[in-house]
Amino acid sequence: MKIIQIKNLHKIYNSDSVSVHAVNGVDLSFEEGEFTAIVGPSGSGKTTLLNIVGGLDEATEGSVEVDGVKINELSARKLTDFRMKNIGFVFQAYNLVPVLTAKENVEFIMHLQGANKNDREARTTELLKAVGLGEMMNRRPSKLSGGQQQRVAVARALASKPKFVLADEPTANLDSHSTENLLDIMELLNKEENITFIFSTHDQRVVHKARRVITIEDGKIISDEVK
Amino acid sequence: MRTNIKLAWRNLWRNRRRTIIAISSIVFSVLLASWMRSMQEGSYDSMIENSVKFYSGYLQVQDTAYWEERTLDHSFKAPDELKEKISKIPDVTLVVNRIESFALAANHLKSKPAMVMGIEPGSEDQITRISQKVKQGRFLKTGDKGAILGEGLAKYLGLGVGDTLVMISQGYHGMSASGLFVIEGLLSLPNQEFNNRMVYLDLQTARDFYSAAGLSTSLVVMTKNHYEVKHLKKAIEKILPASNRVMTWTDMQPGLEQLIESDRGSGIIMLGILYMVIAFGMFSVVLMMVKERSREFGVVHAVGMQKSKLSVIVFFETIFIGLIGCSIGVLISYIFCSYFYFNPLPMSGKMGEAYEQYGMEPYLFFSLKASLFYSQVILVFLLSVFISIFPIWNIHRLKITKAMRS
Question: What is the ipTM of this complex?
Answer without folding.
Answer: 0.89
